[in-house]
Design brief:
Layout (H helix, E strand, L loop, with lengths): L1 H10 L8 H17 L4 H17 L5 H18 L5 H10 L1
Length: 96
C-alpha cells in the first residue's frame, strides 16, 4: 500500500500541496456553486450577504482568480438575476 502512495506522490507531486492560486480558485468555485444553487431570493440574499464581500476581495488576487470572479459577476448580472433584482445586489454591496 505504501508503494502505491509513494508512486502517486512521485507522479503527481502537486496533489498533496496545491498552490495558493489553486486553493483560491477552488474557494471561488465553491462560492459560485453555492450561489448558483440558491433556490429562493431569500436564500440567495442570505448567501450573498455572507459571501459577496470575500468574493469581491478576491479581485486583488492573481490574474486567473480575478478573471474567475469577474466572470462569475458577469453571470450573476446577465443570467441569474432579472433586471428588477439588480437593486438587491447593490443593497448587499452597500451593507458590506
Amino acid at each position: 500500500m505504501n508503494h502505491a502512495r509513494d508512486l502517486r506522490q512521485r507522479l503527481f507531486p502537486m496533489s498533496n500541496s496545491p498552490s495558493e492560486e489553486a486553493k483560491e480558485l477552488q474557494l471561488v468555485g465553491k462560492v459560485e456553486l453555492k450561489l448558483a444553487l440558491a433556490e429562493s431570493d431569500e436564500q440567495l440574499t442570505k448567501l450573498l450577504s455572507g459571501y459577496l464581500a470575500p468574493l469581491l476581495l478576491k479581485l486583488k488576487s492573481s490574474h486567473p482568480v480575478r478573471n474567475k470572479v469577474i466572470a462569475f459577476q458577469t453571470i450573476i448580472e446577465l443570467f441569474i438575476w432579472p433586471t428588477r433584482k439588480k437593486a438587491l445586489l447593490r443593497q448587499c454591496v452597500v451593507r458590506t
